[in-house]
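ok new one. same drill as before - structure tokens go in, u give me an amino acid for every spot. 243 of them this time. try not to just spam alanines like last time pls lmao
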């Protein structure tokens, strides 16, 4: 998951600092910078939406507090970036999602982005509770949203897990047990041995305890998993006459 953002500040050096912070922070991508809110509004009116607006408060023409009210319909999150502490109450009243004080430290910025990513993932989970698997990526603050329908199989590799999709693969540092718990409500997945979980949405053929996926990969059911495998197959067969 990656949050697309714009930055608004009348001071060029503040914009540059924000752009550098965004560049080094996983999970957020910089789209465009603006020196005033009116230009940003024109852009958003055409583009319709952006995930995050990072916005200064004290600016000419229209200040950030007033601009935020106009920008709100075009973004999921609005974060003030200011050198002034006295606007905290006003920012809370208009529903700001963050308040960063200049100069913004790397740690504070990463923490803010992390909160936004978590809020976004929770929102997606509510809207589409059964559509994707959210896992931690290779770095501390990286999260990956994986559509369930694309998962071919999941393989434990000692201290990490590899998730193989129809078009790519991902590495996550969750345990196999954690992954199994996260997908336990999904009926297409089955753990077939100590190190592998497969999706039956992509199974081409079952021959005894050998499984062939559509992509040609073959798997063997482990001895201690055979009873569960047999039960899984029986429950999926179309009628009692063939069981």
């Amino acid at each position: 998951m990656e949050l697309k953002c714009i930055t608004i500040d009348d001071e060029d050096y503040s914009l540059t600092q924000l752009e550098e912070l965004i560049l080094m922070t996983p999970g957020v991508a910089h789209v465009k910078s603006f020196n005033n809110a009116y230009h940003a509004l024109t852009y958003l009116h055409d583009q319709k939406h952006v995930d995050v607006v990072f916005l200064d408060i004290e600016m000419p023409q229209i200040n950030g507090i007033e601009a935020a009210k106009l920008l709100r319909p075009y973004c999921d999150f609005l974060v003030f970036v200011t050198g002034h502490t006295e606007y905290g109450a006003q920012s809370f009243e208009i529903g700001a999602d963050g308040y960063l004080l200049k100069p913004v430290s790397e740690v504070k910025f990463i923490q803010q982005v992390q909160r936004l990513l978590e809020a976004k993932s929770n929102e997606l989970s509510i809207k589409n509770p059964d559509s994707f698997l959210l896992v931690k990526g290779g770095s501390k603050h990286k999260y990956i949203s994986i559509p369930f329908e694309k998962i071919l199989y999941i393989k434990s590799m000692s201290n990490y897990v590899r998730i193989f999709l129809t078009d790519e693969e991902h590495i996550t540092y969750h345990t196999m047990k954690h992954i199994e718990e996260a997908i336990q409500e999904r009926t297409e997945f089955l753990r077939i041995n100590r190190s592998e979980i497969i999706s039956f949405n992509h199974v081409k053929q079952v021959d005894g305890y050998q499984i062939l996926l559509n992509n040609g990969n073959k798997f063997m059911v482990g001895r201690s998993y055979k009873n569960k495998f047999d039960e899984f197959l029986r429950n999926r067969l179309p009628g009692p006459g063939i069981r």
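The chain has two domains: 3-125, 132-242. and btw The first helix runs from residue 12 to 24.
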